[in-house]
């Protein structure tokens, strides 16, 4: 089996080398980039399974947030920020740009490898052949195989996280899904703070409403979320 390919985007050459050696020793293939433009070029050229992305990429480069936004225009490949920007506001902005994970430096490399493995498991290990392949509720149509969404017949582009949040809500539209159940379905045991879930749900609502659909992820106080009110 071909080992996952990870794109490492880091402007510090010593840290970039340390990360690629650590990943290679753990069985991953790697491709490197030192700035935003080369990151996007290598992303499209090599089609990595995951992107490890610094935010600050030097004074003459677009930053990692913009790199992530541009990747999200065309792909739902997992993106994990690895950065010194530790403020909660920075983390919210990072997740809002489309990131799947946000790790602050300095980081224990064993922990980083565990986070990478968890992301790749979530992406590659979901779904059973006996499960339904399409879901419909409140004018929202999900194709679970193609991972596409239509609202009243209109295609809607969602990020991987937004799609994965919508699935359990549409599966049982009358049932309340707890925050913990949503987190477990989408992120596993770790996802950050409550703000991260709120940001992704807010973006999901915005996409669905803009397409003419209902206001999804209706909050039921003290319990969780239902598809609509």
Automatic annotation (TrEMBL):
Entries under SUPFAM superfamilies matching the protein: CheY-like
Residue ranges of every copy of the Response regulatory domain listed in the record: 5-120
Parts of the chain that traverse the membrane: none
PROSITE patterns referenced in this protein's UniProt entry, alphabetically: OMPR_PHOB, RESPONSE_REGULATORY
Domain named OmpR/PhoB-type: residues: 132-229
Record-annotated DNA-binding residue ranges: 132-229
InterPro entries associated with the record: CheY-like_superfamily (IPR011006), OmpR/PhoB-type_DNA-bd (IPR001867), Sig_transdc_resp-reg_receiver (IPR001789), WalR-like (IPR039420), WH-like_DNA-bd_sf (IPR036388)
Residue positions, PTM 4-aspartylphosphate: 54
Pfam families linked: Response_reg, Trans_reg_C
SMART domains: REC, Trans_reg_C
UniProt keywords, alphabetically: DNA-binding, Phosphoprotein, Transcription, Transcription regulation
UniProt name for this protein: Response regulator transcription factor
Originating organism: Tessaracoccus lubricantis
């Amino acid at each position: 089996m071909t080992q996952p390919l990870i794109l490492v985007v880091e402007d510090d050459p010593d840290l970039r080398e340390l990360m690629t050696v650590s990943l290679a020793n753990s069985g991953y293939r790697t491709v490197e980039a030192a700035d935003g433009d080369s990151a996007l070029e290598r992303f499209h050229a090599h089609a990595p399974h995951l992107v490890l992305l610094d935010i600050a990429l030097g004074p003459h480069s677009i930053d990692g947030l913009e790199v992530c936004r541009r990747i999200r225009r065309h792909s739902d490949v997992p993106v994990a920020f690895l950065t010194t920007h530790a403020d909660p506001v920075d983390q919210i902005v990072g997740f809002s740009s489309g990131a799947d994970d946000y790790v602050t430096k300095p980081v224990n490399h064993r922990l980083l490898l565990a986070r990478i493995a968890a992301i790749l498991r979530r992406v590659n290990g979901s779904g059973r052949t006996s499960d339904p392949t399409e879901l419909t509720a409140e004018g929202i149509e999900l194709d679970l195989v193609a991972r596409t969404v239509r609202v009243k017949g209109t295609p809607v582009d969602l990020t991987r996280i937004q799609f994965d949040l919508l699935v359990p809500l549409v599966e049982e539209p009358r049932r309340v899904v707890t925050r913990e159940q949503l987190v477990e379905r989408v992120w596993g045991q770790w996802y950050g703070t409550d703000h991260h879930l709120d940001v992704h749900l807010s973006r999901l609502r915005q996409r669905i409403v803009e397409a003419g659909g209902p206001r999804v992820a209706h909050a039921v106080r003290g319990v969780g979320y239902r598809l609509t009110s």
